[in-house]
Amino acid sequence: MLVSAISVCALLLPTVAAQADPLQKLSISSTGINASFIAYGARLTNLFVPDKNGDMQDVVLGYDDTAQYVIDTETNHTYFGPIVGRYANRIKNGTFTVDGVTSHIPENENGGLDTLHGGKVGYDQQNFTIVSHNETSITFSFLDRAQQGFPGTIITYATYTVSPNSWTSRLVSIPLDEPTPIMLANHVYWNLGAFVNPTASKILNDTLYMPYSARIIAIDSLEIPTGGLETVVGTPFDFTSPKQIGKDIYQAKQCGFNCTGYDNAFILDRPRYSAPEATDLKVLTLSSAETGIQVDLYTNQQSLQLYSCNGQNGTIPVKASQQHAEGGTFVDKYGCLVIETQQWIDGINNPQWGQNDYQIYTTTTEPAVVWGKYDFSVIKE
Predict the structure, then answer these.
(1) Which residues have CB under 8 Å from 300's CB, separation 6+?
(2) Taken in order 367, 215, 288, 45, is the CA torsion positive or negative?
(3) Count of Cβ atoms closer than 10 Å to residue 271 Cβ
(4) How far apart are alpha carbons 48 and 319 in whole angstroms?
(5) How many angstroms separate the CA atoms of 52 and 107, rounded?
(6) Cα 177 to Cα 5, 108, 263, distances in angstroms
(7) Nearest 10 degrees: CA dihedral of 378, 197, 53, 340?
(8) What is the spatial distance between Cα 145 and Cα 155, in angstroms, rounded to a whole number?
(9) What are phi and psi of 39, to 5 degrees?
(10) Is the pTM of this model over 0.90?
(11) Nearest to 162 by CA among 377, 378, 373
(12) Going by DSSP bridges, is the β-strand pair 303-307/225-231 parallel, antiparallel, or unpaired?
């Protein structure tokens, strides 16, 4: 008697954990770091690290009441903190072809001209199963049975681990039958200033450094790739030397129709004697002078999608741990920075980029792995 791969995977997942409250916060901690998650979207809800005064600050956006994440999905749909997928970012016309088979994913952006973050019901809306949880690590899983029209079944394991002053995210996706595109990403909204004062309520004074990002993917007014690539030298997109985010942000106009700010895919061109997915290089450093908090990012992915919260409008309050002003603090335009580690946006529809080996997976390929490590420290004054 043959047992299907899907059945085997189902047997391996603990049924008790599957019945847990998907909105219950679960925490992990180590020296200098404490993180909380919920199973709804395998979502990061809080991340506390010490500032220059030794006070613990929550440096990610979200909600205190976890039920608000569901309400948010039905209204603003900000994607605060979850995994996005099965295919992160945008797919032109919601269609792609793999091995001669064309798939159509529900378009959920720009009046039906593209698919964003996996369709109308992406991974951010799924109740993941809690597979394992201890003091320093938690693992979630999700069995995706061709949801939203993606071909085939895949199982994903999301493991989040903390070590002294560091958070590591590892997303592993395994196809169980058909060839399929897979491109997951963590969708975390960062504010290293933690809203401690009016200046820290925006990220404009934060310093950003991406030494290997000398190119961006060209996009049209709907933020869909045109197929072209552009160099950043002499443009507002040049962070190959450390620079305050606000220095050139008002000249950055390639983030959609009538938009000013950043919402762009920065290519990671690692050095000649490195490798396309090398994990030993700091690909991004971000710091806040207000708190002194700095994060160094390492990843195996080949691009970083940065979004400077151009669409926030001051209607969403920050968490209680981030409220420092009379009258309350809200998330304003440029009040945060999203950093998505991923492969090249819509690479499945741009074969000239040679991204297929990093975006299309089968039962005979290696799993799709998205790995990112965030090391925290305090900058010296």
Answers:
(1) 277, 278, 279, 369, 370, 371, 372
(2) negative
(3) 10
(4) 12
(5) 45
(6) 8, 27, 35
(7) -30
(8) 9
(9) -75, -20
(10) yes
(11) 373
(12) unpaired
The pLDDT tens digits for 120-167 are 999 999 999 999 999 999 999 999 999 999 999 999 999 999 999 999
* Distance (Å, whole) CA 82 – CA 140: 12
pLDDT at 327: 82
Q: Which amino acid is at 210?
A: M
Structure tokens at 203: 């990220």
Residues 288, 203: Cα–Cα separation, whole Å: 8
pLDDT single digits (tens) 257-297? 999 999 999 999 999 999 999 999 999 999 999 999 999 99
pLDDT tens column, 287-339? 999 999 999 999 999 999 999 999 999 999 999 999 988 889 999 999 999 99
CA 39 to chain centre: 16
Catalytic residues: 187, 340
Residue 1 neighbours by CB under 8 Å, 6+ apart: none
What pLDDT digit, counting tens, does each position of 91-127 carry? 999 999 999 999 999 999 999 999 999 999 999 999 9
- Give DSSP secondary structure letters for 251-271: G---SSTT--S-EEEEE----
CB 62 within 8 A of CB 195: no
Q: Six-digit token pair at 309?
A: 């919260």
The β-bridge relationship of strands 153-163 and 137-145 is antiparallel
DSSP for 143-169, written as a single string: EEESGGG-SSEEEEEEEEEEETTEEEE
Rounded to whole angstroms, how far apart are CA atoms 108 and 111?
7
